[in-house]
Write a structure and sequence with these properties.
With about 500 residues, this protein is of the alpha+beta class. The chain is built from 14 helices and 19 strands. The protein has helices at about 5-20, 35-50, 95, 155-160, 160-165, 170-190, 230-240, 275-295, 320-325, 335-345, 355-370, 420-435, 450-455, 470-475; strands at about 60-70, 75-80, 85-90, 110-120, 125-130, 130-135, 195, 200, 215, 220-225, 245-250, 265-275, 300-305, 305-310, 315-320, 375-385, 400-405, 410-415, 460-465. The strands form 4 sheets. An 8-stranded mixed beta sheet has the order 7-11-12-19-18-17-16-15, with helices on both faces. The chain has a 5-stranded mixed beta barrel with strand order 1-2-3-5-4. β13 (about 300-305) and β14 (about 305-310) form a beta hairpin. α5 crosses α6 (about 170-190), α6 packs across α8 and α9 (about 320-325) crosses α11 (about 355-370). It is elongated, with a radius of gyration of 29 Å. The model has no long low-confidence stretch (mean pLDDT about 95).
């Protein structure tokens, strides 16, 4: 049986040989375009609004991938697509002479540069009339026929370049993502924050409750970790005197996949001296509203069929009240894991028999509260066991001043008033070590250098972490985190 793909590749290789025999470069090194396809169309529209007798239409040089072609006798139309859009090109035999015949050597997927005047066809489409053309790249493989050639979801992620080539919506999503990240930078810079960079390879994986990836540093002959958060290094900068810092960067957590989780993702973390979690809460709702306005031109969005208003103020409710409302369990009435586990079992739940009290509270939140938080909501004041880096609540010593922000049924932000008492911080780390020894692989790893830094004195501060991938999901109305990450992790193909 003939392999159709290999046959098509061979046909294209034969065309390359014919073109090169004629002295035509099939992969030239240089080409200068004067306009993108979008700029070319706008240039013609501007000319139309102020056309004067005797003034010729503008001439342009555009370039792009051939995405469609239509033959009409001695005239051929092709669509060229670049990163800004698409424009039609008309090739006429009477204008191109012998070079018109070479068009048969061009295929969908090839890149072409075209120069000529702009005009509007009888159907009203802005078009370049080709006076000259240059082959820029001969594609050996044909592009997917829209979705007929790319229906496997895993193939879309594994060959994202084909997904982008075939699907206009996918391109729009990632252009929107870029705008969202740019808007975050504009917002943070406008509030006086300094963007910084901290190490990805770290001797201690701290700053979050998560299992890290490990790697070996050959030059030092020492195991290192890919960072699970930027927190501890950013707080060192507060110690050093930088009062407002933030970082947008990749985070790595050796955990499972879901529609909301990818082991490698992007976060924005910020730390502001002399602020607390109330200040950060106000900044967070302003940030999200600003980003939506900048990216979409509105603060009202639709996510999975729900109309959501992002404008401040957002709803605020304590974690204790939210869990009690949905489950009937008041976790404050159960001071240890065993009593809380029995209360959960009495409600017909099946709690993890090895989980600590903090993890059990988090399970109640994830299973019974989080999915119902569609409109923007802040949950406040978490158990100290869940937050080893947050400052204790002055009125409730078993809780910390922490909030999480939720939209569309999942968390997009996490923040707290930062713990700056080195004695309490050391005691929290000791407790985390105990939890790890008891089998909790996500317990916080102690970082002695960070403790030393805090002992030099860290100002009171408010910290924030925003999951950029999840924020993009909300703003672009995507159901899965893999739809907003260009190259999500996948199992290696054998």
């Amino acid at each position: 049986m003939v392999d159709i793909r290999e046959d098509l590749i061979q046909q294209r290789l034969t065309k390359i040989e014919r073109l090169e025999e004629l002295g035509i470069e099939t992969y030239p090194a240089h080409f200068h375009r004067t306009h993108s396809t979008a700029q070319a169309a706008l240039t013609f529209l501007d000319w139309e609004t102020q056309v004067q007798p005797g003034v010729e239409p503008p001439r342009v040089t555009v370039a792009g991938r051939i995405s469609a072609r239509r033959g009409m006798g001695r005239t051929t139309f092709m669509d060229l697509r670049d990163g800004t859009g698409r424009i039609q090109v008309q090739f006429r035999q009477d204008l191109l002479g012998e070079r018109y015949a070479l068009l048969r050597e061009f295929d969908l997927g090839d890149f072409l540069g075209v120069s000529g005047p702009l005009f509007r066809t009888s159907t009203g489409e802005v078009t370049v009339q080709a006076a000259d053309y240059t082959l820029l790249c001969k594609a050996l493989r044909p592009p997917p026929e829209k979705w007929h050639g790319l229906v496997d979801v895993e193939a879309r992620y594994r060959q994202r370049y084909l997904d982008l080539m075939a699907n206009e919506e996918v391109r729009r999503t990632f252009i929107l993502r870029s705008r969202i990240v740019a808007a975050i930078r504009q917002f943070m810079t406008g509030r006086g924050f300094l963007e910084v960079e901290t190490p990805i390879l770290q001797p201690h994986a701290g700053g979050a409750l998560a299992r890290p990836f490990t790697t070996h540093y050959n030059a030092l002959d020492q195991d290192f970790y890919l960072r699970i958060a930027t927190e501890l290094h950013l707080k060192r900068l507060l110690v050093g005197g930088l009062d407002k810092v933030y970082e947008i960067g990749r985070i790595f957590r050796n955990e499972g996949f879901s529609t909301k989780h990818n082991p490698e993702y992007t976060s924005m973390e910020s730390y502001e001296a002399y602020a607390d979690y109330n200040d950060v809460m106000a900044m967070t709702e302003e940030l999200v509203a600003y980003v939506a306005e900048a990216a979409l031109g509105t603060q009202t969005i639709t996510y999975r069929g729900h109309a959501i208003t992002l404008a401040p103020p957002w709803r605020r409710i304590s974690l204790r009240e939210a869990i009690h409302k949905e489950t009937g369990i008041d976790f404050e009435a159960y001071p240890d894991a065993d009593s809380l586990r029995r209360a959960m079992e009495a409600e017909g739940m099946q709690p993890d028999p090895h989980a600590g009290r903090g993890k059990l509270v988090d399970d109640l939140l994830s299973a019974y509260v989080e999915p119902k938080l569609i409109q923007p909501t802040f949950l406040l004041d978490y158990p100290v066991e869940l937050s080893p880096l947050a400052k204790r609540h002055p009125e409730h010593p078993g809780l910390v001043e922490r909030f999480e922000g939720f939209i569309g049924g999942f968390e997009i932000a996490n923040a707290f008033t930062e713990l700056n008492d080195p004695r309490d911080q050391r005691a929290r780390f000791v407790e985390q070590v105990r939890l790890r020894e008891a089998g909790d692989e996500e317990a916080e790893l102690p970082d002695e250098d960070f403790l030393t830094a805090v002992e030099y004195g860290m100002p009171p501060a408010g910290g924030l972490g925003v999951g950029i991938d999840r924020l993009v999901m909300i703003v672009s109305d995507q159901p899965s985190i893999r739809e907003v990450i260009l190259f999500p992790q996948l199992r290696r193909k054998e």
